[in-house]
Amino acid sequence: MATSAKPKGKTLSSQASTAGRPQQAVKFASRTSSGRIVSLSRDEDLDLSGEFSGQNDYINYTVVMPPTPDNQPAWPSSENKSNGSTSRFGSEAQHGSRQGGAQEDNYGGRGGTGGGSSNGDAKMERGMSIMKSNNRSILLRSQTGDFDHNRWLFETKGTYGVGNAYWADQDKYGQDKELSMSDFLDKPWKPLTRKIPVPAAVLSPYRILVVMRLIILCFFLAWRVRNPNPDAVWLWGLSIVCEIWFAISWLLDIFPKFNPINRSTDLAALREKFEKPSPENPHGRSDLPGVDIFVSTADPDKEPPLVTANTILSILAADYPVEKLSCYISDDGGAILTFEAMALAVQFAEVWVPFCRKHDIELRNPDSYFNLKTDPTKNKKRPDFVKDRRWMKREYDEFKVRINGLPEVIRRRSKSFNSKDAKKAKSLAREKNGGVLPPEGVDVPKATWMADGTHWPGTWLDPTADHRKGDHAGILQVMSKVPENEPVMGQPDERKIDFTGVDIRIPMFAYVSREKRPGFDHNKKAGAMNALVRASAILSNGPFILNLDCDHYFYNCQAIREGMCFMMDRGGDRICFIQFPQRFEGIDPSDRYANHNTVFFDGSMRALDGLQGPVYVGTGCMFRRYALYGFLPPRANEYLGMFGSTKRRAPDFKVQLEDESETQPLASHPDLNLPEKFGNSAMFNESIAVAKFQGRPLADHKSVKNGRPPGALLQPRPPLDAPTVAEAIAVISCWYEDKTEWGDKIGWIYGSVTEDVVTGYRMHNRGWRSVYCVTKRDAFRGTAPINLTDRLHQVLRWATGSIEIFFSKNNAFLGSRRLKFLQRIAYLNVGIYPFTSFFLATYCFLPALSLFTGQFIVQSLDIAFLIYLLTITVTLTLISLLEIRWSGIGLEDWWRNEQFWVIGGTSAHLIAVIQGLLKVIAGIEISFTLTSKSAGDDENDAFADLYIVKWTGLFVMPLTIIIVNMAAIVIGCSRTLYSEIPEWGKLFGGLFFSFWVLSHMYPFVKGLLGRKGRVPTIVYVWSGLIAITVSLLWIALTSENRGKLDV
């Protein structure tokens, strides 16, 4: 290969490849600006006939060739010892010390002596030669077949040179410096994540179409305002108001979608940085930060303990360092059934977790794993897998039976202990009353007993004072201790499975039920989460918190590592939470009620990820504990101007001393004030700084800011002691939050039934960023209500929370300057979208009113109206198709979402607005029932719950819209057919929009019909009442109009 010569002033030496050739003189050369090698010698024997020869340029090419049989170094004889030479990287000192009989290697390496035939077995050396252009090139001869270079490499000790593909062990580089390939390969710093933008071929047309449709909408609305319908001004006015609002609502929804992005993680790089041996970590222990996982439950009747137990088992078996993982369950109902089910789950985890590690099981929820339809032996190579799996399946079946039998076991146990207590109480009463029972009898409370013969401190089966829901003591039970820092390997045939060489440790697990007393506002789920935050800070203090619902289990055992890639990457110290998409199981194949909600999770959330980050949606979210405490990010920006186009570095706010509070200026926004009142627990307050330091990314590169040194998290966790557990119990008491900032600035925020959105908004308002982590294999999977009534009540709760946000200080209009403009628009849409229900319900009645009256929203279906309608529809369709393209959702999913938007908008959203207004104006509190996580009663049909019709007042408005539109179609068609001058244009306009409404209501109709022949009587009753009411109203209106005409 051609290489450059040394800089000016240095010399290059070359000798003839054979003894018969004349000796080549030393040539002086330098590199030109064009990169060529220019000789500085003026020897007459140089051939200047080359292509690049000039008047003053003497060109030679330097060729690096390994020593070959026909390119041997010409070992000089004794008469020419004075002719020395220097190597490519040799020094002048080395040149002066060498003898003429030594020829140095091209790369500063070996030397050899001797000459003639005595050198036949000498080592092959690489040389650098300047070959005259009139001599035949060695490279050319190797290409024409004169010399087989490959054979020479195979039969000799020749090497390929120096590089990261091959490096001989005996090679030297520089002055007496031994190097290996690992020294030569300076590994670059690897990022843990990568941002993948949406292709411009998709995103650019998408943005152009959005702008085009906006312009067309402006022209259309202006045309509608300038062209009223004098025959039906009221109809025209209602339609105009609705269409203007729909345009505003569309803008609020579409603008935050201007910059969608995708992200990917590098799990191999994460392991290499945090779990490979290094000078700071010689034993290769995990340097990853700790993670505390929260699971919330409240009612074992609606959230079956078996479902919760499977979630806990999937968490304990997660692929994350055991000593860094802790799991907590919050039982807000204080039920002994949940408590004992968790104890059984921990006992079963002692064999389930090592089984998953031994056989590398990916799906670590046992119920889902044993119900897989695929071949379980795929990619399994251990010969004992089938035997182990068969034994584990039998153990899990027995575990399920024990869980299902717990209610009866607890009832019998309590009955037995209560009867013994009753006998003791009666005997004591007889002793005190002279051997006779007192006339008033003996009152013995029917307590609920634990297996150890003590009273259950939580809610009893027969509730009484201090032992009912909303009135019981705090409970904290560490069911599995803090694991050892070193792996604990199993033994052969341990519990019927050979766990030799398998780590049998399980993470720490704790059951928590906060104290509840009458007269205290316990703030629902948000209060339970804050109690877990405090208790976990005392017991484990993981710098990151992952919260899950009791029905959301680990579908991807490496989900924590996926999220940790973002937290530990460069700039990860500015991330407050990682939101994973919600994926659901048990949904009917047609997804009748859009339970998958893919338009939101795969469309809107990806788009928000390109702004300041996705919103927090309640489950499947990994928090930075320090951000959850209400502190500001280490770095943030402010966005100024009308549209936030001017960005500047946000100032740093420092904690103000009490004597400086009056002299220092206040922060520009209340959310930017630092939290101060955490409570009176000194142990908790000391844990804040520790969590902040341990949550920092690794400072392994100069570009990583606010990092921590490698190896800082290798110290083992101290074991728990009695004072620590007692402190954890104290911080979950109901009085601990008095006169503190919990729920206001710290932790989950109170005051809304959708505490998740408010909590995420507060963090974004302080300048934090969030990330949307979409993994190749779903991170978590859960269940969703497939019953129409349950689904509408779920949507009602979400919409009511949005109304509460709109009428509170959490309205995005009041956000700080640290909130990006488009992120502000997204949060505005969260609070405004339920108000669309009024306009949507009105618009759904307009087609029926048009058919009833024979009028239309425009005076006539002229060409201008039809062109506007066509262009608006076509642009919306193209925008939707492109959104489907960059988000990856299906066309059917998009259509189901459109249908349920109309169903929910005319039912749940409408009631939510009314309830929200009543709460704001009249102070009427809103209560909701817990969404049931249990399946239907029909074991033979997995979707039996889909066909169950539970009547609710939310059905009234959609049912009215359907009946009115169907009646209007019949009346409108009859009038036009029997009219002397039929107005077909107005009929077709009304029919088109009526069918548009009915097509969106089709899933609602199927939900009302239930199974064939099982339509509830209440449906017929309400349908008849609505039909009769509409008919009487129509008769009254037509008779009044006829009377006016007769007059």
TrEMBL record:
Localization terms from the record: Golgi apparatus membrane
Basic and acidic residues compositional bias, start-end: 421-433
Membrane topology: Multi-pass membrane protein
InterPro entries in the record: Cellulose_synth, Nucleotide-diphossugar_trans
Region of interest: Disordered: 1-124, 421-444
Annotated keywords: Cell wall biogenesis/degradation, Glycosyltransferase, Golgi apparatus, Membrane, Transferase, Transmembrane, Transmembrane helix
The keyword Glycosyltransferase is annotated on this UniProt entry: yes
MF-aspect GO terms: cellulose synthase (UDP-forming) activity
Comp. bias intervals (Polar residues): 11-21, 74-97
Transmembrane segments: 200-222, 234-255, 826-850, 856-879, 900-928, 948-972, 984-1005, 1017-1037
The keyword Membrane is annotated on this UniProt entry: yes
Domain of life: Eukaryota
Gene Ontology terms: biological process: cell wall organization; cellulose biosynthetic process
Pfam family, one: Cellulose_synt
Coiled-coil region(s): none
One annotated Gene Ontology cellular component of this protein: Golgi membrane
Amino acid composition bias (Gly residues), ranges on this chain: 108-118
Gene3D superfamilies the UniProt entry points to: Spore Coat Polysaccharide Biosynthesis Protein SpsA, Chain A
PANTHER family linked to this entry: X-BOX TRANSCRIPTION FACTOR-RELATED
Family: Belongs to the glycosyltransferase 2 family. Plant cellulose synthase-like D subfamily.
Function: Thought to be a Golgi-localized beta-glycan synthase that polymerize the backbones of noncellulosic polysaccharides (hemicelluloses) of plant cell wall.
Name by which UniProt lists this protein: Cellulose synthase-like protein D1
Source organism per UniProt: Dovyalis caffra
